[in-house]
Amino acid sequence: MATEQKDETVGTGTLGKTMAVLEAVALAERPMRFTDILAVSGQPRGTLHRQLTHLVQEGLLDLRADHVYVPGLRLLKLASASWARNEFRAVAAPFLEALHAQTGETVHLGVLRGREIIYLDKVESRQAVRMNSQIGNASPVYCTGVGKAALSTLDDAALEVILSGIEFRRFTPQTLVDRAALLGELEAVRRSGVAFDREEHEPGIRCVAAPVCDAARSLVAGISVTGPAYRVGQEKLEAWVPLVRQAARAIKNELDARLGPQR
Q1: What is the DSSP letter of 157?
Q2: Judging by beta carbons within 10 Å of its beta carbon (0-12, 13-18, 19+), is residue 237 exposed, middle or buried?
Q3: Exposure of 200 by Cβ count < 10 A (0-12 exposed, 13-18 middle, 19+ buried)?
Q4: What is the H or E stretch that residue 138 is in?
Q5: Fewer CB under 10 Å: which end of the chain, C or N?
């Protein structure tokens, strides 16, 4: 699940620009050379060289012998600590496991970050053919079940901020590629309490998702059950609707009970 664009809310100061460089390298589909990073960073050559040098010195990036930059081991350490201590993931974990036991397919937990969904947890399918998704990966909000479920909980102002920056890309023939189509779908999600991905992001992959948010809407997320189209038709997705809605409600209730007073 590839990231298609960076969130434009990244800061424009020194730290923000350095973080943008780190993100560009970390999320690239293949290792990047200095000239590759220069082309996408929009920064002067000397500035970029200093930033990359500092990131390598701090262990956040590695410079390989073939002169390409790759994520450093320190990033893995930080990511591992963040994942292990994430309270939301810990709250949701037993309900994800229960949903997986009920359906036998892959269950995802994702949180809304800008115009992307970041996957916080995943319970793998028991079936032979499994999903290629990974914890920590990001996907667009407009063509994923979890993304549309999360968007459905936003008020008009917050939704407009996200919609105004989306650059629609057609991943499959089923992808929603304009604002009007997405808004129409979100209305249906609000009415039903679930969102579907009908092979909109990846060919041959379908899912049903439901939104999860805390009482203050400071955390907006979603859960989904996902499977390959050849064994997951619309009838099966519909059969999972009450299970996914129930799991999402249970996570929200537990989240409010355990974390609400601390927020």
Answers
A1: H
A2: buried
A3: buried
A4: strand 138-140
A5: C
DSSP string across 20-59: HHHHHHHH-SS-B-HHHHHHHH---HHHHHHHHHHHHHTT
SS3 labels along 72-121: CHHHHHHHHHHHHHCHHHHHHHHHHHHHHHHHCCEEEEEEEECCEEEEEE
The tokens of 9 are what?
A: 């809310």
pLDDT tens for each residue of 68-85: 999 888 887 777 666 555
pLDDT in tens, 15-56: 888 888 988 888 787 889 999 999 988 889 999 999 999 999
- List C-alpha distances in Å: 185 to 46, 90, 151, 182, 246: 47, 31, 10, 5, 21
Q: Provide the b/e sequence for 94-126 (b: ≥16 CB within 10 Å).
A: ebbebbbeebebbbbbbbbebbbbbbbbbbebe
Distances (CA, A) of 170 to 127, 142, 245: 29, 11, 28
3-state percent helix, strand, coil for the chain, nearest multiple of 5: 45, 20, 35
142 Cβ partners below 8 Å, 6+ apart? 115, 148, 151, 166, 168, 176, 182
* Location of structure tokens 């999360």: 150
C-alpha of 197 from chain center = 14
The two tokens of residue 124 are 């793998």
Task: Report the Cα 91 to chain-centroid distance in Å.
Answer: 18
| Residue 85 CA neighbour count, 13 Å, CB half | 6
Task: Give, in order, the Cα–Cα distances in Å from 5 to each of 16, 66, 70, 106, 225.
Answer: 16, 27, 19, 26, 25
pLDDT tens per residue, range 181-211: 999 999 999 999 999 999 999 999 999 999 9
* pTM of the complete model beyond 0.85: no
